[in-house]
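Supplementary Data S3. Sequence and structure tokens for construct A.
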Amino acid sequence: MKSLNLEVSDSLAKQIQLKASELHTDVNDVVVKALEKFLFFSELESFRTKLSEKNNNTGWSSEEDLFNDIS
């Protein structure tokens, strides 16, 4: 497993420590989980953008348009 060194603001460090305490876990677990979620949602947004571009080429401007066409 790789190790990373991060510099964060004092306020962010305090938030992370409070969340770790609240969850009865260590700071590392909170940071890893936050990074995993960030990367997941970043990838999801990228995917949605690509789909949106393709949808616009097909005349769909919303998920409802797609739903109506396939229903």
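Construct B, processed identically:
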Amino acid sequence: MKFIDHIRERYKKRNKLFLSLDVIFSILTFYFALRILFVTIPGLLEPSKSIDTVPLLAFMTLSLGLIYLIRVIEMLVTGKRTYFALTLGVTILALGLATIEFYWLF
């Protein structure tokens, strides 16, 4: 029950728009992570089979970067700057990595 109470507290404290965007991009990240897992397992079991997970990895990294970008924007809008520099650094790292992956992809 502590976990559900923690979720309710976060729901009450956060802006609903930022929370909904955070949930959407979190679900997308989780979806791409599961897709990568299900694509790579058959490739590991049969070494002769070729697998290409770069597009999935690029989209997963992009959605992860967008999650942190939403959190940075929320921190700027609400004025809550706890761990702002760390979150901004992770955002730049994730979006930069996604840019490099998309550059390799295309």
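The first helix runs from residue 2 to 13. The chain has four helices and no strands.
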